Q: What sequence folds into this?
């Protein structure tokens, strides 16, 4: 039975407001929108989460909330999964951008019709329907303009600092902004397919009544204020981070993963967590250099070594064991743990034994690291990641870059460079300062989402706006 059908108030008269969530079909986006759905639903507002069947399954399976009861009151709408025409990721492709995602942009556009049908079905059931859509789904929800009782809000799942300066640079720096010294150029960050897809969204974003940001004023208040100044016609609600649901001892997992059991046996702050997210595949040569670099650093580590998701997470992961140096795992038993399946990232970062995070600096990973007070070894690959890394290392002083962005584009990072960056974060006085700064940011960020905190107040403001 559909949960809300148990409540006659939703059947006998129109609801005051209903919210429809439309995420972009990529894991980190799906998860953030599901987190936001749970928060909105907690205000007793009917929430519908709409995307393809595969994406609903993925979002539910890897949801990192406290428990799955969080989304028990959300209506899930599963559209037929668009044809995903992608080839498997090429681990030796020269371009860092995940080329296997490119066909998904085209497939995503096919969701426009099923979304429109859903809008027409739900709009008569409420006085006001609010569509909260990922900024990359503005084209897909364009039919909201034809239905009188619907308004839209966009959701920005990326860092305000990055999106602000990326757009500014793409537009040719048309207005005065104080550009931080050493800020990475947008050049080489985006491939043409993604840029075309972003460009397609721009006109349809103009009609939104505001933007919800998965960020927090305690992290980047200066840049959120700048964003408000740049677009004076839009309301902005910085409600993040959306990912604070983990116990500080890392034991809040639905089932105890083997890496958490391994972490339980380690010293506090002694382990480096290594993971490059769900859309990045390192070349075989780079994997070997990373393996040697981790060994040379003489630091303990957990390394999630798996290929990028191929659009359907249920096809099984490619095993990369043969890429590692011969006898590597046996040699490093007790020092390093290589994980080849999905790992509970939030629980790992929250664990008392975790002292650092080597990351591609996707915004989801950055926020999780900041929230848990863990400093970063930044290794950006593409898109918003170079500027996210810059925010963490140069502005927030909560991490170290494995190599400057301009040099990272030149090829394979040597094992000696990797070892040096790891030792700097995990075993130096400078690293201790970064850890202290990260822990301070973690405290401020966790407070922000509590009752009376700045992000909680912005969420309350958004709810007041849609229920006005």
A:
């Amino acid at each position: 039975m559909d949960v809300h059908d148990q409540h006659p108030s939703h059947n006998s008269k129109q609801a005051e407001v209903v919210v429809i969530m439309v995420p972009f079909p990529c894991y980190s986006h799906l998860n953030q929108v599901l987190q936001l759905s749970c928060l909105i639903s907690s205000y007793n507002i009917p929430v519908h989460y709409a995307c393809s069947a595969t994406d609903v399954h993925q979002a539910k399976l890897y949801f990192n909330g406290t428990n799955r009861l969080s989304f028990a009151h959300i209506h899930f709408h599963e559209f037929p999964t668009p044809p995903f025409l992608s080839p498997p990721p090429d681990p030796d492709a020269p371009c860092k951008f995940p080329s296997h995602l490119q066909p998904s942009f085209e497939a995503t556009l096919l969701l426009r019709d099923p979304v429109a049908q859903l809008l027409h079905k739900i709009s008569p059931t409420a006085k006001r329907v609010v569509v909260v859509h990922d900024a990359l789904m503005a084209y897909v929800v364009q039919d909201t303009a034809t239905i009188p009782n619907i308004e839209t809000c966009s959701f920005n799942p990326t860092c305000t600092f990055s999106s602000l300066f990326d757009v500014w640079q793409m537009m040719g720096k048309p207005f005065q902004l104080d550009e931080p010294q050493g800020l990475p150029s947008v050049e080489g960050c985006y491939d043409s397919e993604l840029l075309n897809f972003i460009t397609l969204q721009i006109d349809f974003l103009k009609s939104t009544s505001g933007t919800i940001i998965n960020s927090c004023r305690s992290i980047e208040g200066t840049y959120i204020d700048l964003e408000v100044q740049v677009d004076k016609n839009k309301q902005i609600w910085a409600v993040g981070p959306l990912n604070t649901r983990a116990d500080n001892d890392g034991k809040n997992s639905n089932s105890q993963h083997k890496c958490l059991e391994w972490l339980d046996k380690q010293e506090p702050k002694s382990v480096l967590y290594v993971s490059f997210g769900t859309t990045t595949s390192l070349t075989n040569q780079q994997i070997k250099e990373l393996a040697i670099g981790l060994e040379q650093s003489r630091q303990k580590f957990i390394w999630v070594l798996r290929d990028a998701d191929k659009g359907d997470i249920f096809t099984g992961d490619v095993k990369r064991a043969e890429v590692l140096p011969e006898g590597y795992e046996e040699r490093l038993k007790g020092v390093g743990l290589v994980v080849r399946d999905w790992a509970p990232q939030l629980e790992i970062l929250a664990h008392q034994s975790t002292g650092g995070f080597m990351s591609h600096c996707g915004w989801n990973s950055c926020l999780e690291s900041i929230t848990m007070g863990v400093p970063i070894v930044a290794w950006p690959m593409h898109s918003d990641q170079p500027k996210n890394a810059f925010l963490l290392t140069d502005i927030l002083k909560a991490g170290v870059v494995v190599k400057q962005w301009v040099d990272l584009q030149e090829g394979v990072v040597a094992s000696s460079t990797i070892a040096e960056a790891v030792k700097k974060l995990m075993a130096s006085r400078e690293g201790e300062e970064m850890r202290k700064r990260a822990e301070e940011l973690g405290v401020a960020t966790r407070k922000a989402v509590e009752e009376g905190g700045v992000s909680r107040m912005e969420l309350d403001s958004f709810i007041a706006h849609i229920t006005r």
Notes: The CA atoms of residues 21 and 49 lie 5 Å apart. The chain has two domains: 16-244+447-466, 258-446. The domain at 258-446 is CATH 3.40.50.2000 (Rossmann fold).
